[in-house]
Design a protein that fits this description.
globular; 153 residues; 63% helix
């Protein structure tokens, strides 16, 4: 192979690399949107990527381990376990380093995390901490959270 062909091949590989990475991220979002009941691994992936803590090429099981190592409530939790709205809210608040209101500061946990995010307008509709969560609703919550607090992340 001559040098010219090698240079062309290298240039093409650098041009196609962003397309492959974007396609992987889009495929991950498609899978997440199809989840009727969000799993801990998917929520950890969504939150950690959403707040800019990890790269978007991380697997869901690795994201679950990372979240478990950072937040004691989720330590040892299976990536396939379902997650509630309150737990998702708590994961989001802790990953983003948000201090919250008075009750959340004294009693940090899923209950008051969901209430705090509902008060801030991040969670719309019912904010019952023990209800299940779909991938679509979780994505909307992340979108509102990052648009509201994006500069602080």
């Amino acid at each position: 192979m001559n040098v010219k062909k090698l240079r062309i091949l290298i240039c093409l590989s650098f041009l196609l690399l962003p397309a492959v990475v974007f396609a992987q991220s889009a495929a991950a979002m498609d899978i997440l949107l199809q989840e009727e009941s969000l799993t801990f691994g998917s929520s950890a992936y969504l939150v950690l990527v959403g707040v800019g803590e990890v790269a978007d090429d991380m697997s869901r099981s690795d994201a679950a381990e990372e979240a478990g190592s950072r937040i004691a409530l989720f330590d040892g939790r299976s990536a396939d376990a379902p997650i509630s709205l309150g737990e998702f809210s708590y994961l989001l608040m802790e990953a983003a380093g948000r201090s919250g209101g008075l009750m959340y500061r004294f009693f940090p946990g899923p209950r008051y995390a969901a209430r705090e995010l509902a008060f801030q307008g991040v969670i719309q509709g019912n904010a019952y901490p023990n209800t299940g969560l779909s991938g679509e609703r979780a994505l909307r919550i992340i979108e509102r959270f990052t648009s509201q607090f994006g500069e602080e992340l």
